[in-house]
Amino acid sequence: MYPDPKKVRDHRITIRLDDYEFAFFISLANLVGEQPAALARRVLLKEATQLCTSDSTVEPRSA
Asked: pLDDT averaged over the chain?
């Protein structure tokens, strides 16, 4: 049915936003012409990837 069944987006994560954050995010989604959930996924994955590849979270060892 699907080439890779593990790529089916079947898992949910709930986030809570206040009125200002929600309005900002909806405005941003409208500005770029993307669905809010798709934009949230893209932003989340981009930020997570940056965190994983960033050296700022690793503290240098002192001898």
From this structure: 90
User: CA distances (Å), 46 to each of 23, 24, 36, 42, 52, in order?
Assistant: 21, 19, 15, 6, 10
Does residue 33 come out as left (phi exceeding 0), alpha (psi in the -120 to 50 range) or beta?
A: left
The helix, strand and coil proportions of the chain, stated in percent and rounded to the nearest 5, come to 55, 0, 45
Residue 26 is encoded by which pair of tokens?
A: 């909806």
CA atoms of 22 and 11, how far apart (whole Å): 22
Q: Does residue 63 have a pLDDT over 70?
A: no
Give residue-wise pLDDT tens across range 31-47.
999 999 999 999 999 99
